[in-house]
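Our collaborator T.R. sent over the components below with a one-line note: 'Predict the complex.' Nothing else. No constraints on interfaces, no templates requested, no preferences about which chain binds where. So this is a plain run: every listed entity goes in together, and whatever single assembly comes back becomes the starting point for the next discussion.
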Amino acid sequence: MTPLSHTRGSDWLESAGVRPTRQRVTLASLLVGDGQHRHVTAESLFEAAKLEGEAVSLATVYNTLRAFCDAGLVQEVTVDGSKSYFDTNTHDHPHFYWEDNAELTDAPADELVIAKVPEAPEGAEIASIDVVIRLRRT
Amino acid sequence: MTPLSHTRGSDWLESAGVRPTRQRVTLASLLVGDGQHRHVTAESLFEAAKLEGEAVSLATVYNTLRAFCDAGLVQEVTVDGSKSYFDTNTHDHPHFYWEDNAELTDAPADELVIAKVPEAPEGAEIASIDVVIRLRRT
DNA sequence: TACCGATTGAAAACCGTTCTCAAAACACTT
DNA sequence: AAGTGTTTTGAGAACGGTTTTCAATCGGTA
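Returned assembly:
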């Protein structure tokens, strides 16, 4: 964790009013420390923290991702029933899901154009539209 | 289970070369017996079978849905990390997901027009595109 | 009817996730 | 710095949906 990534992580937490504990700053800097967007699972983030030598318990990784989600810092993406993905890019955008290795990446938002959307049925409104482009290696 | 729904269920299984055991015909007739499309979870189908008086073990419901999926009779839809949904409509089409009661229904396919789709990255091809319209009751 | 691979189902295993709760960290006052 | 009340952490247990195990049973075939 470089000083810069640490600062970015802290600022990110502060911007959402999330208390910057040691563990949260560690995870935050792993998530946004380099200014890039990232897609993680609890397990992958847990492993990343361990590699950094900044061990954080798995329970805390789960709690923290949930907290970041509630604070609007990350977005949960449902693509594979078996585990949850979290995306630091909270703008509305499509995803590529690589079926071969269960990896999730962003798809370019400007290359997806939805010209017409089914209207919400009576008594309901559209909360969001999830678009997942499933990829298979050729 | 009426004679007609029984026949429809059996025919459906036969069309995919799936051996029509008593349990499978029961579940098949619950799924396509009235010629309508249906969205079920293992649990909901299990309950439906019990109500019919045609008890099938939960393990068999799981195995059977998996088998139907492999045979291309139903499609798994991932909308809610916590459980799996299966859809008897295997054509490419969007879904409404009712967040309030975790219900899944079809959205009219002809009212969704995707004018432009991100190209698959090098070394990959698009397997499918999942569109889930999340609804919130007003 | 006899055979043999496929299917069933009760129970156990599995696995990602959440919960519990005591200890530690933190913010805030004095 | 010490005291006080709140929040967070983390080891382990619990949970819930799903899959696996394996012996009994079924279904298709000769």
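Summary for T.R.: Residues 19, 21-22, 41-43, 58-59, 62-63, 66, 82-84 of chain A lie near DNA strand C (CB under 10 Å from a C1').
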